[in-house]
Structure formats: structure tokens, C-alpha cells
Write the C-alpha cells for this entry.
Amino acid sequence: MMTPSHHAYVPFVSVDKMMKLVLTLGIERVLLDLVAEIEADFRRWPEFDKTARVASHSDVGVIELMPTSDGETYGFKYVNGHPSNMKNGLQTVTAFGLLADVATGYPVLLSEMTILTALRTAATSAMAAKWLAPAGATTMALIGNGAQAEFQALAFKAVCGITEVRLYDIDPAATAKCVENLAGRGLRTVACTTPEQAILGAQIITTVTADKQYATILTDNMVGAGVHINAVGGDCPGKTELHRDILLRSGIFVEYPPQSRIEGEIQQLPADHPVTELWQVIAGTATGRTDARQITLFDSVGFAIEDFSALRYVKSKLAETGLFDNLDMIADPNDPRDLFGMLLRAA
Amino acid sequence: MMTPSHHAYVPFVSVDKMMKLVLTLGIERVLLDLVAEIEADFRRWPEFDKTARVASHSDVGVIELMPTSDGETYGFKYVNGHPSNMKNGLQTVTAFGLLADVATGYPVLLSEMTILTALRTAATSAMAAKWLAPAGATTMALIGNGAQAEFQALAFKAVCGITEVRLYDIDPAATAKCVENLAGRGLRTVACTTPEQAILGAQIITTVTADKQYATILTDNMVGAGVHINAVGGDCPGKTELHRDILLRSGIFVEYPPQSRIEGEIQQLPADHPVTELWQVIAGTATGRTDARQITLFDSVGFAIEDFSALRYVKSKLAETGLFDNLDMIADPNDPRDLFGMLLRAA
């Protein structure tokens, strides 16, 4: 049997290789690099093919495909969201992604994205805060101490200079896990027993909980003037974290409005409620924070371009690290018309 | 480092394993099995989540995602269509696909689908002809002798009892390749030098060409009464194979009208031109061929449910054949909330 051509092989980054890649480069460096990549792609936002993600909902969760393209490279992510998974010992969110060459349609990268999604979500959160949070912020409340919490904490340390993280979760074991994982990483961690205690003195409040239901992690009276809210957990229809009144007092920043109107905190508001697109703040065509007393809210749901940026970053690191395998995924006969002959010759 | 749990591994069918699987089972048996699977799923058509595929078009081709779900299993295919690839030694169509568990969102199969798509497309074509072609058909014209041609020929032999295939391609080398590949497989092959010669005496005409442009592979005067046309190659906006007048004389059968109106031969017709959904013929709720003189046309563009059926079939054969690898694609820490800890422990 002939050896498949190089087109047949797709570089594949397994979970194991992704962990090695992140540890080799350093977690905080990866987070900083991802912010740079995502920011660069947000600046050229109009160049991308954009579409709200394609969701398949069930009673217990959602499976989504998130495609985008910049005309040269196509990317998509497969991602699920199943809040009930956790009690069965499974991840709430798992993901993998792919890049392909627009000119040929051939895949050029397949990668795990469960870890990469946690990294890119944290990087996007910190990037937004870099543009929106009050000047000199040093303390962040982190409400929801699950799978994504430590990534958020380190991103805000690396990107925004946060020095203290105040942790709260309805399950104290989650908070304890978080405190332990963050030990020795240059962040002061404070385990809190109420959300009110967590937000004490915090200039930034991050909510990253997982319940698939209208929840009220933050009520209106908890949020003072000047705070930046990074609302990560409300990310599908029927799943929100903030009381509606907070939204009415906030300057709201979103990724892609057609998707955020369906999935974000702003699903609680009329469809014409004003929001600002984050990319425009970064590109300099819209105003970010207007004054020190404004409450800014990044209503994050996650958008395909962030995954695209992250996948391209991973791809750029493969040659130097060798941290990938070649996957025999694309049938590529010597004569492209002879697919059947290739099959016969495999006998 | 701990061994990943079984959830971390996704069974993966590579190109090599797919070829071995098909050859082990037998090509015609696989085609017959696929018809049975696709037919069973078409009978329960209303149970599926259906959506037109999500296409990303460029000047040279298209990249598509084709998701569906039956409420228990979710599936999607990635597929490209790049007619210009062939002259660069690449496949016009490459594909891979995935199945996942709706209850958890965890993937349960990743598979090459370049070969599988050729098989499922041929199986779907032959299935439609089984329901629509004139009784006693023995001869098929096969216009377009590229990567999918032999699969079509064998499917019509196995499923419809075709004994003679009359081959035509604008490139005689493609026809010669086809004749050679089909030798000794129980089909009489006739290499033809014009489309008119190919359709001589044929009760079924299959067009499976690849040009991304409005083409006229068949003109109106070439198609006589009673013929069944299996139009496979017209499958995206701006890509058709039949003269419009043929459509006006035919009973037209399609897979999923919202997609076929955009991509199929019927993009040449007004949006309200009557068509019949093939699944309804199979389920007994719509009429197929009305009489011996009717021209029936299966305006095939390929629909996600066919891929779903094919992927489920492949999955059902893995335990007995062992023809798969385990891919470390899903991060699955022992404590689902401790994704970060898993990363740290990989050091």
C-alpha cells in the first residue's frame, strides 16, 4: 500500500499535547499571547464571515458549532454545554476545533479545545477588562469556582494586574480547590462564604457559574458605582446570572449582538436596548468606559472569532514544539479522481 | 500522570481504517447496509432536528457544516467542495464527521468521511431510484466519471439490479479509469464518447460532474419519457447540471426542500414549484412515480441525515472489526471542576 500524501495528514493536538504545550510555553504567557491574538483579530472584525452559532438544544444541554472565516483560513469549534454533567463526573463544557485552508477546503489543524476554550475565554474576559475596567483595579471577585475559575484568575493577573481574587462558590469544596490550585502563583486568594463578602472592595466582578436556568448571582444592590462586571456564565437561552436591574444601570459591551441578544444577559432586555460591540472599542470607533462611576458590563457568551484566534495561535506553536500528531483523516489518492481505486488498492 | 478516563477517548476511524472496514465487509454489502440505514432514518424523518447546512462560500469553493440530531444522538459532517482542487491533485470533496451523545454532549465517534460520503451518496441515489425508477431498469448512463462514479455504479448494481453502465466524461481518461476499476465486478461497462451515446437505451441517467457553474450536462431533447434522472453534481448555489426545461417536464423529488431550493437543480425554478420530499415516498405519505412515461428526477444535494445514518452504521461495526483508534480528544479530569488541576498535574 502506498503511503498517504502529506495532504492526508492533519496535525492533531490531543489533550495531552495541549497540556504539554501550555506548560512548555507557560500558562500566563499563553494567556497574554492569546489576548494579543484575539485583540488583533477583533481589530479586523469586519474581515470575518460572522454567524451566530448553530445550536442543537435538548432538555439537558446544548451542542453548538461555531464557524468563522477570514477569507484565507476557516475555523470552527464543536462545543457542548451540559450543566448536569458535573454531578455525573463529566465536564460541563467540552470542545474541539479545526482550521482549514479556504483555498482548498483541506483541514490544516484539529485540536482539543476543552482546555483551549477555558484559556481563550479567560483571555477574552481579561482583554475586555483591559479596555473597560476602572483604572488601577487590583481586586477581583470570582463567583463560581468551577472548571474555568483559575484560568480567569490568572488571566486577570497577567493582563490587568489583579493582585487579589476573592472566591465564592455555592460549594465550598470548589472554592477550596481553587485556592489550592492558585497557591504560589502570585495572587492573594480569599475564600469567601457569601457573594457579598466576595465583592467587598472588588473593582472587577467575574461571574462564571454553570446553572442552565435564570439565576440571580448578582442582585442590584450588590453592585456599586464604577465596578466592571465580567459575566461569563450566562451563555445560552434561559441561562443568565445577573438581575435585570443591573443591566439597566450598566454600559453593556458584547461580542456579536445577533448572538448575544439570544444567549447573553441581554436576553432579559428588549431587542433594541443599546449595546456596544467590544471590537469597536478596541478598533477605536466606539467609546469604552465613559467615567469612573460608570458600571461597565462585558456580557460574554463566547464568539467564533475567539476560537479562530486561539486555534491559529496553537497552530503557530506546533513547528517549534513538535507537540502534535499526524492524523490520517483526509483521503487523498494520487489521482484525485481515483478514490475508488485507492480503496481497492488498500486490499 | 494519570491515565485519561474512557470519556477522554473518542473512537476514530482513519482513512486507512475506513478502507479496511469497507473491504472487510465488502463494498456492495456496505452499500446495501447503508441503504437500509438511510431508509430507516428517512422513515422517521420528523424525529430529526433539521437545518440547511451552514455554508462558508469563497471564490473557489465552499466549506460546509451539516448537523442533525434525533434527540439521542447528534451528528455533523464537515465537507468542502472545491472543483478547482482536482487540477492541483487534490480531492474536490473531502469530509469528516462526528457523532455525540445528546445527553452529555461528549463525542462518541470521529470518522473520515471522504470515502464514506461517496458511499452514502451512492447509497442514497440508489435508494431513491429503487422507489422512483421505471420497473425493470437494467441500464444506467453515468455522466461524470470522477471520484464518485464507481460508487454510484456499484450501488445501482447492488440495490437496483443495474447490469450495464454507460460511461461518459469530458475527459476520456476518467472514463478509462472507471472502466478499469469496475472490471470483474459483474457490471457491463460501455465507454462512450458523447453524452448522447451514453444515454442510449438507459432507463436511469446519473449526472455526477463537478464544475461549479451553471452547466448543461443534459439538454431537454436528450431525455425521453419514463427515464429516471439521478442528478448528483448540482449541489450548491450557481452549480447545476440540467437544462431548466427538463425540470419542467419532471416529477421532482428532493431531500430537504429549504436546502434543495438553494443548492439543487431546482434553484433554477420559482420557490413555489412543486416538489415531493423523498422521505414521504418512503414513509408512504406521498406518491412516487405516477406512471411508466413520467420522467422522475431525484435532485440530490446530500442531507445531514444521510451522514448521520452512515456514521451510526460505521459506529455499529467498530466492536466486531476493531478498526478504529482511540483519540485523546476530550479533557476529562477526575474532578470535573478541576480542569486547571489536571493541567498542572501534567507537568
Chain A has a mean pLDDT of 93.
